[in-house]
Amino acid sequence: MARNQITIKDIAREAGVSTALVSFVMSNATAGEPLYRVNSETSKRVLEVAERLRYKPNSSARALRSGKTGTIGVVLSDISNPFFSEIARYLEDQAYGYDYNVIFASTDEDPEKFRRVVSVLMNKGVDGLILVPCGGTEDTIRELVSSGVNIVLLDRTVPGLDVSSVVLDNRDAAKCITEKLISRGAVRIDMVSYSMNISNTRDREQGYLDAMAAAGLSGYTHIERIAHNSYGGISQYVSEAKDRGVNAFMIATNTLSLLVISEIYKQGFRIPDDFMIACFDRNPLYDIYGSGIVYVRQPVDAFASKAMELVMSHVSAKPGKKRPEEQIVLSPEITG
Amino acid sequence: MARNQITIKDIAREAGVSTALVSFVMSNATAGEPLYRVNSETSKRVLEVAERLRYKPNSSARALRSGKTGTIGVVLSDISNPFFSEIARYLEDQAYGYDYNVIFASTDEDPEKFRRVVSVLMNKGVDGLILVPCGGTEDTIRELVSSGVNIVLLDRTVPGLDVSSVVLDNRDAAKCITEKLISRGAVRIDMVSYSMNISNTRDREQGYLDAMAAAGLSGYTHIERIAHNSYGGISQYVSEAKDRGVNAFMIATNTLSLLVISEIYKQGFRIPDDFMIACFDRNPLYDIYGSGIVYVRQPVDAFASKAMELVMSHVSAKPGKKRPEEQIVLSPEITG
DNA sequence: TTCATTTGTTAAATCGTTTTAACTATTGGT
DNA sequence: ACCAATAGTTAAAACGATTTAACAAATGAA
Question: What share of chain B is helix, strand, coil (3-state, %, to 5)?
Fold first, then answer.
């Protein structure tokens, strides 16, 4: 990169002060107004010179000395998944507001990869981590937490760990949409879920069972657990479901929903005539199906702003004064 | 971040050598084999100690001294747009392979925001930039290029600028899908496009016109240009199109496609009975419509790998020996 | 007047690496 | 025996900021 670096030294020379003063002014001046222990003339002059020379602080130097990089690492399942990419966008905007940057890393739900990318981000020197834990990462996270890394869990929790987190009230959300299916006449409702051990899908399964029980439908419940990234069996499963008289699917994640919906149409069935759908996260095309699809709209913006708020509150905590960890549970919104 | 930093100094002491040697070994040792001008005993010892103490180089220090941050900035329209988030994912993976990181920033097609985020990334100290230019950023980009910044344009070009780029053959792609519509019986085909001045949509419009001309349908062509993020008029437009006897839409981008498709259904029309659709980028639910939707599948992985390859070739160029800029045009794949 | 506090500023150390220039052995050619 | 080249290593100077400890001058209290 061609960068004719103007340094703090140039400014110091030009303004006739020391580099220490320049540094102090540059990093503490707020809107040109009164600055503790600095002559306002002087500080104005420094600011002016900096402006004139188009001074841009070198962030590597700053990071080296101060130990703060101004970067938050975000580890999520897959940034190409719309749910996460939407979160990513909000996180990006949030970070910008704090004068921070975010670096994303995808794990593909693989705990080994999770470990690897976390380590890369740590080496890179992030000031905090926002993590979407996947199955099998409990130990890695526990280790991070106990070594004092600034962490916020997102979308999923790790039970028995004192660490900040922001999650949806998944159980309630799942219960609500299942009830909505029931109120629209569904009686044989299958749940399609993932086989991975992840807090949010487990909670959603509970919500499904809750609703079925509350409606006296416990006689028929079925949870079909699909392994992540092995979707071969879906075709057979859907046709069998039809045979079993299933008339609605309650689906745990957006990826699974799209697969099931496609499959339904591929087999010549229709929504809502053959099946109704309850699912998580919206898709621009769901509206087409009218009341055939109920979905949980997750407050993605709140996920992002809360997570960033939490991670920032730890970043800015005075050394020694660790802020208490905070668990936040957000309410779902039901649509469709 | 709590990090009990093991430094190069610790290793030097432990291994009984100088820090210079440690640094040299650490950054040049490839798989433990012969290392220029270093006793293999010594280098093995250094490596061992580093391993034992779990040495992690401090990247801020490295960046400060070497001037390389190991980070590429990626500026795109909106990372929550599936097309870009998919690219983002591939870029992330690619970068990882080069031992690099990427930082994303979204512009929302706003040239002022573009300028801002580029400046943030530059200050952060990226080794290169992958840019999706938006309308009105020509000057900003020209300026960057002429100041020697390592740049690769993605998805869109800026005419008259000697800079590397990776784009789709948009004109040809648009021509192909329009022809496919025609071959399936469409005659009154509207194109829905953006009003922004962006190379790829302009090219797609040309492709549409090409196909219409080639089929002798130049008598009826219509390009509806929508302003970015002001989609209020779509509803009226669709119903008017129906009145005009339009029986197919050729749509320039994925966002517009979803809007139009939703609107079609909202107004009680059907695909393919009332309208056929030709569009760009796939959506998991398009398959439902069978041959009613033709779409261009962009080689997103190639976009990413080529862009990263280009930016990396500049990063690793010896100072003074600037690699020539390279323009890459990728071929589309038609599906549906 | 004298001592204490506050104001305004700076010299110098430090962060952890990379990199340059140089130095001592050792080898080999003549 | 002499010189040149090569191998192996290191001391020390960057890189550009932040931060600590200290100092001089001005102010105020007694």
Answer: 45, 15, 35
Taking 70 as the pLDDT cut, the residues of chain B under it are 1-4, 30-34, 318-321
DSSP class of A291: G
**CB-based contact A64 B79, cutoff 8 Å:** no
Task: Based on the fold, state whether residues B85 and B20 are members of the same structural domain.
Answer: no
Amino acid A29: pLDDT = 77
Q: Are residues A96 and A43 in the same domain?
A: no
Q: Residue with structure tokens 């905590």? A: A317
Query: In this predicted structure, what is the pLDDT of residue A31?
Result: 58
- CB–CB of B105 and A92 under 8 A? yes
Identify the pLDDT of residue B88.
98
Return the amino acid letter for B326: E
A169-182: average pLDDT: 98
Is the pTM for the entire model greater than 0.85?
Answer: yes
Which residues form the domain of B246?
170-297
Of B60, B128, B258, the CB nearest to A285: B258
Residue that finishes a domain, picked among B67, B83, B118? B67
Domain of B270: which CATH number? Answer: 3.40.50.2300
Kindly state whether residues A280 and A257 are assigned to the same domain.
Answer: yes
* Rounded percentage of chain A residues whose pLDDT exceeds 70: 96
Q: Looking at the 3D structure of chain A, how many domains does it have?
A: 3
Picking from B12, B104, B82, the residue whose alpha carbon sits closest to that of residue B254 is B82
| Angle value at C-alpha A172, between A171 and A178, nearest 5 degrees | 90
Is B324 within 8 Å of chain A by CB?
A: no
Same domain assignment for residues B4 and B59: yes
Question: Is residue B334 less than 8 Å (CB to CB) from chain A?
Answer: no
| Cα torsion A208, A213, A217, A219: sign | positive
Contact (CB, 8 A) for B197 and B135: yes
CA A102/CA B279 separation, integer angstroms: 33
Q: How far is the CA of A21 from the C1' of C1 (A)?
A: 35
Chain A positions in Cβ-Cβ contact with residue B287 (cut-off 8 Å): 262, 265-266
- Using the beta-carbon criterion (under 8 Å), do B285 and A266 form an inter-chain contact? no
| pLDDT one-digit tens code per residue, A116-137 | 999 999 999 999 999 999 999 9
Q: Is the peptide bond before B272 cis (omega within 30 degrees of 0)?
A: yes
CB contact under 8 A, A58 and B125: yes
Check residues A289 and A333 and name the one with the higher pLDDT: A333
Are both A58 and A85 inside the same structural domain?
no
Of A323 and B206, which is predicted with more confidence?
B206
The enclosing domain of B52 has a CATH number of 1.10.260.40
Assess whether B271 and B190 both reside in one domain: yes
**Residue A30: per-residue pLDDT:** 66
The number of C-alpha atoms within 13 Å of A70 and in the hemisphere containing its C-beta is 23
Instruction: Please list every residue in chain A whose beta carbon sits closer than 8 Å to the beta carbon of residue B102.
Output: 103
Which pLDDT does position A321 carry in this prediction? 67
Q: Quick one: B49 and B142 in the same domain?
A: no
Same domain, A82 and A39: no
